[in-house]
Amino acid sequence: MIELENVSKIYRMGKVEVPALRGVNLTIEPGEMLAIMGASGSGKSTLMHIIGFLDKLTSGRYCFQGTDVSRLNDNRLAVMRNKEIGFVFQEYNLLSRASAVANVELPLVYGNGRNRHKRALEALERVGLAGRAHHKPAELSGGEQQRVAIARALVNNPTLVLADEPTGNLDSANTAEIISIFRQLNQDSITVVLVTHETDIAAQARRIIRLLDGQIISDERVG
Amino acid sequence: MKLIVFLGIAIKSILANKLRSVLTMLGMIIGVSAVIILMSVGGGLQNMISATFEELGSNLLFVQPSNPEAPGFAKISPVFATASLTMGDTEAIKRLRPVSAAVPENANFVKIIAGNEDSLAMLHGSLSEFQQVYGFAMESGQFISEVNIGRRDMVVVLGSKVAEDLFGNDDAIGKQVKIRDKRFTVIGVMAPRGLSSFGFSWDELTVTPITTYQTRLFTLKTPGGEDAVRQISVQIASGWTLAEATKEIETTLRKRHRIDADEEDDFSVISPEQLLGTFETITLALTIFLGLIGSISLLVGSIGIMNIMLVSVTERTREIGLRKAIGAKRRDILMQFLLEAAMLSLSGGAIGLSFAGVAVWGISQIDLGSFRLDAEVSPFIVLVAVMVSVFIGLTSGIYPAMRAARLNPIDALHYG
């Protein structure tokens, strides 16, 4: 599903060039549950942004379901993000003024989806939050907010869910809850990529990639 | 469909920061209401002047002494112009074919006294045709006659307000009044006519024979020693144009005043329409000037909107990043912020419009002594105000919205 060939990413900070990824080769098959690990600055977030069409690569090739993504323009990339990918962020990134269900509806607004409200409620039900649909984020616990964010990632039936430190702000009980939701999604045949620096979170995945200084140093299958 | 959702987002975000939104709108509120009030008052002024000239009729010409050496309007100012017109000129003009009537008009403000009562009147010395030229109806008694004029009779025809001031509901005919310590007999009272839009009341106008006026009240001589006439009001016969009449009057007077071909006139023929044109140019310039002053506040208002939209974009950088991550295109973000700016501006404009409507209504109700300013907010002004508000919103929103649309989603997501 995802094929990265010799992918490099170099950031320019004024006159200085900072390489974030150096010749990464990675193939992800449909239905995988993968953890990307590495210290901060290792390039794991950059890798996730590239996989999620949020960032463009400097050199190399990225094929998503057979399409060469590096040739697509910004508008096409926006459509791809909308249709194919669900993002989950460490800080949840919910709109504070909007209710849970309105937050979940948002991708459908940009995708011109039909039955937005109904589909958003179904997505909330999938993460066990149907009863809190009309609460504002401030009225929800951290774990609940992250479940709303997961529902938002799911609402457009993506093929891939990308989660950037999804449990970084949560206690252990909520962390377990969130991880079990991701495992459930994966059983429902959604490809899941988790970016984390916590070993016990990564251990829940079936494959662990380790990055150091922009290069993959290990790729192991677990469980 | 998307547009409705975006409109909802815009309204929500405006309502989320109520105080800030109102403060931002304040510039627009003040700007729009200032422009509308100033333009409406200017328009009212213009209406008033037009109405004044319409009242005089379009078949009247005025002949006044003029100083050929004086510049512009100073030519016909009594300060500079030598009294050059006489009763003989009046008679000569009256005999011209394009002229149906010509009356002399010498006028002054006087205090008329009867017993313990007095009244301020605009006293005109004229002929019997004065009544027909200005279309006065009689309430009682008679207008001044040829006989009165020939004998220089000490008689007056009172305006209805003057008669009421002096005699209340009593019949004024035959009563004695004093003007400049001279006794006059009231021979007629004119029917009430109301306010002239020039600011004086027709009902204060009082008429006495021109001969009496010239010899017993206000003496004014031409350099040749004849009794002078301040103004000759000429009524054009039907079938003739103002230009034709003007030409004949000029030819006749030049001959009578022995003005050589290379000399300029010592009189001017003025048509109300010509004056109206001048006044309209002046009031139009005034209206535009007032509008420009108001536009400065609009400009300030628009800068305020741009400023607050820039703040809003910075504040919501993460939100923009998130929206982009879940599939918002550049134009979606652009649209969202443009709509928000337009809504802000339009709401401010609408509030300003209502405020101006009330203020203009209030101004039109003020009694300015003898007249009211007929100011109103026309549908055209409303339309322009709405369009200008939207336009300002869009122009001041475009830069912040473009900044928002151009944000890199990754930088935006991890901002702050």
CATH-defined fold name of chain A: Rossmann fold
- The rounded Rg of chain A comes to 17 Å
Shape of chain B: elongated
CATH superfamily of chain A: P-loop containing nucleotide triphosphate hydrolases
Largest β-sheet summary of chain B: 10 strands, mixed
Helix percentage of chain B: 40-55%
Continuous helix count of chain A: 7
Give the topology string of chain A: H per helix, E per strand.
EEEHEEHEHHHEHEHEE
Enumerate how many helices of chain B there are, as a single number. 13
Strand tally of chain A: 10
Assembly classification: heterodimer
How many individual domains of chain B? 2
Query: Which chain pair shows the most residues in contact?
Result: A-B, 26 and 22 residues
Characteristics:
heterodimer; A: 223 residues; alpha/beta; Rossmann fold; six-stranded mixed β-sheet; four-stranded antiparallel β-sheet; 7 helices; B: 416 residues; alpha+beta; 2 domains; ten-stranded mixed β-sheet; two-stranded antiparallel ribbon; 13 helices; elongated
Structure description:
The complex is a heterodimer of chains A (223) and B (416). Chain A is built from 7 helices and 10 strands. Chain A is of the alpha/beta class. Chain A has one domain: P-loop containing nucleotide triphosphate hydrolases (Rossmann fold, 3-Layer(aba) Sandwich), CATH 3.40.50. The mean pLDDT of chain A is 92. Chain B is elongated and about 105 Å long. Chain B has 416 residues and is of the alpha+beta class. The model of chain B has no long low-confidence stretch (mean pLDDT 87). Chain B has 2 domains: 189 residues, no CATH class; 183 residues, no CATH class. Chains A and B meet through helix 2 and helix 3 of A and helix 1, helix 10 and helix 13 of B.
Short summary:
The complex is a heterodimer of chains A (223) and B (416). Chain A has helices at residues 44-51, 74-84, 100-110, 116-126, 142-154, 172-187, 199-202; strands spanning 2-13, 16-28, 33-37, 59-64, 67-68, 85-88, 160-164, 191-196, 207-212, 215-221.
